[in-house]
Each structure stands twice: as C-alpha cells, then as structure tokens.
Design goal:
Length: about 350
C-alpha cells in the first residue's frame, strides 16, 4: 500500500516511500521492477533533487514522475556559523514556506547533525524556544531525510551521526519518525546505522513502550529536567499526563527489552532544579539504573526568563552524581554564539518578519 496521506497538491511524496512501495508505483506505471531500485538510489544515495538529473531513467518516465510525484528538498533560508567554525546552523525552508532548523556540529570523531521532527512543538516545556508558537505541523519522513541530505548538498560534508533533538517532539510524530529511521539505515540509501542515532523525547510514555517493542539499536534520550513531580509539573506539562514514576518504569522496561542504556538530559535552571539537594534526589531516583546523565546549563531564551547558575554550581551538581556512582557529564557547549539552542534561530527569523 502506498502512503496516500503523503500527497501534497495531488503529488506523491516519493522520498518517503520504501523500496517495495516504489516497486508498486513503478509497476502501476507499467515499468520493469529494476527501475524502482534505480529510483531509490537516485533519491537516497546520489540524492538528486530533480527528476531530470536521473540520467538512466527514460525521459518519458521522468516526465510521468514529475507530473505525479515531488522530491522534498528543503531550501537554504539562512546560515549561521560559530566563530570557531565548529557549528553551522541552517534555517531550511520547506515546500510550504515553513522553516525548520538543523545544526551541524563538527567533532574530532566526526560530524554530528541535529535535526527537527516537527514545525514548532506542542509539548509546552517552559524553557524551550521551539514551543512558543505551538505546533504548526509534523514533518514528513522525506523532510527529515531532506535535512540530512542538505548537509552534503549545501555544506559538502558527510554526516556521521544524528541526534533528533531539534525542533519538535519526535514521539508526537511517531509513524513518520519510524519510517524515517527505516529509510536512513537502508543499505541502498545513506546506510546510517541506528547505533549512530540518538532520539530525544520529553517522555511520551505510550510511544516509548511502543518503540521498545521494535528493539531499535538507537540511543534513547529522556528529557528529565527534574527529580520530583512538583518541579517537573511546573516546567514540563507532559509530566501531568505521564509522571516521573511512570516515565522511569517505562525507561527501565525499555532497557530490559533493548539492552540499550538510556541517556537522561537534565537542563540546569538556576533556582529551579539545580540545588545540591536536588542532585541527591536525582541520584536516588536513577541510582538503580545503568544510564548516563547529560547536564546542560540552560540556554537562556528571551521569552522564558530562566537563567543558568555558575559553572561551579553545575560542577558541584555533577560531582554529587559521579560520587554516587552515576555517569554524568556537563555538556560541552556548541555554538551558543549562533543561537544554537532549539528553535532560537527560527524564533529570531519569525520576529524579524521573515516567516509567516
Ligand atoms: N522534544 C524532544 C527533543 C527536542 S529538545 C525532547 O524534549 O527531548 C532537545 C533537548 O533540548 C531536550 O532535552 C530539551 O529539553 C532541551 N532544551 C530545550 N530548550 C532548552 C534550553 N533553552 N536550554 C537547555 N536545554 C533545552
């Protein structure tokens, strides 16, 4: 069955199709099966953005494809580069004029790309810039792939690892994200192993449980940000639906099923969740788990009013966890000079009246 819900202006989103669906499309066009393989390679290995570039596909078939299908290729709208060159942030424009962000971080061990999964977000985390205007729409699988492919097209760089930590809540766009994950690891496509992918969620428990059944080999990151329900309720509305106990039970079950260690994200917000007492509580909460804690001094976003504490306070918080036997690190910061925190460039662009 071809995904009929991925049709825009009567045209089929061809990049979101799996090889077997392409085969069906090709069969419906009266063409031999091997054309489907050629098409998949043009789209996902050579990553062309125009049917006319598919030189081994007959002209008549290319014409038919152009009439009935579209290739999702986001256009560059804005680019920011950090002073040290380690981070490039791309503001990309989608087919309907909406804009999303992708951030490329160049590490010693390879290039890591942070991608968006939705236009905006409806989860309402108080410290996050992506959620300020709410959710506009989900991204298609092709639009998530399009961000990865844009890095080689626009920056001439290879992507070695991916983090799904950009704009949006990936588990609130579950089917499209699962399909994206299937396409990105395909041997005839980019062939990126899930072991090089991290997916971050604010804690949509039923979807974490569903994902556990799939036994994917990616790293699941949980945005925890608090060690008690009272604090988490205040900064993350999702906690009112799925509280800390439910979330951690689901995480333990996830680890038991997949054998993949969970990574917890904890943004340190001054006076909200960063006291030594809270570090001790966190230690107690996670103490029986094999996990890693990523401490992120909160990125100040103009609209939120949240501030970060001193470096010393962050180090003290980290030490309490380490001394208690939990692997914790303070995240190395990338590109704070280019608004690299989630959704900040999109906000800035919108404020300047360039986004509708
Ligand atoms: N919706 C997903 C992924 C996107 S956000 C999630 O919630 O996990 C990626 C990470 O950045 C999350 O851990 C999120 O809580 C965190 N984050 C968002 N805004 C931030 C800010 N201003 N400072 C520090 N971390 C922030």
């Amino acid at each position: 069955m071809i995904f009929t819900d991925r049709v825009i202006d009567q045209k089929l989103d061809i990049m979101s199709l799996l090889p077997e669906e392409l085969e069906q499309l090709i069969a419906d066009m009266g063409q031999p099966k091997f054309r489907a393989k050629q098409l998949f390679e043009w789209l996902h290995q050579k990553r062309v953005v125009d049917f006319d570039e598919m030189s081994n596909i007959p002209a008549a078939m290319r014409q038919k494809l152009k009439e009935s299908c579209f290739i999702a290729a986001p256009k560059e709208s804005r680019r920011q580069q950090s002073a040290d060159g380690s981070t490039v942030k791309l503001l990309l424009e989608l087919y309907d004029g909406n804009k999303i962000e992708s951030v490329l971080m160049r590490h010693d061990y390879g290039n890591s790309l942070c991608i968006s999964s939705q236009v905006g977000c409806r989860m309402g985390c108080r410290f996050c810039a992506s959620t300020i205007g709410g959710k506009v729409r989900d991204l298609l699988p092709s639009e998530m792939l399009g961000q990865v492919y844009a890095v080689s097209r626009l920056l001439g760089l290879k992507v070695d690892s991916l983090v799904m930590m950009g704009i949006g809540e990936p588990l609130d766009n579950f089917d499209n994200v699962m399909r994206f994950l299937e396409l990105i690891k395909h041997p005839q496509g980019l062939n990126l192993s899930h072991r090089h992918i991290s997916l971050s969620t604010c804690g949509v428990v039923p979807r974490i449980d569903e994902m556990a059944e799939k036994k994917l080999q990616l790293t699941l990151s949980i945005s925890l940000h608090a060690c008690d329900n009272e604090t988490r309720d205040k900064i993350m509305p999702v906690n009112k639906s799925y509280d800390i106990n439910r979330l951690l039970d689901s995480c333990k079950a996830y680890f038991a099923k997949t054998g993949r260690r969970i990574s917890y994200e904890y943004s340190l917000i001054s006076g909200v969740n960063d006291s030594p007492e809270q570090a001790k509580k966190l230690l107690k909460l996670l103490g029986d788990q094999s996990c890693h804690v990523n401490l992120i001094p909160v990125n100040p976003v103009e609209e939120t009013g949240f501030k970060r504490g001193s470096r010393k306070e962050a180090e003290r918080f980290c030490k309490i966890l380490n001394d208690g036997g939990i692997s914790a690190t303070i995240r190395r910061e990338f590109g704070t000079d280019i608004d690299a925190a989630c959704g900040q460039l999109r906000r800035k662009d919108a404020k300047e009246g360039k986004t509708t």
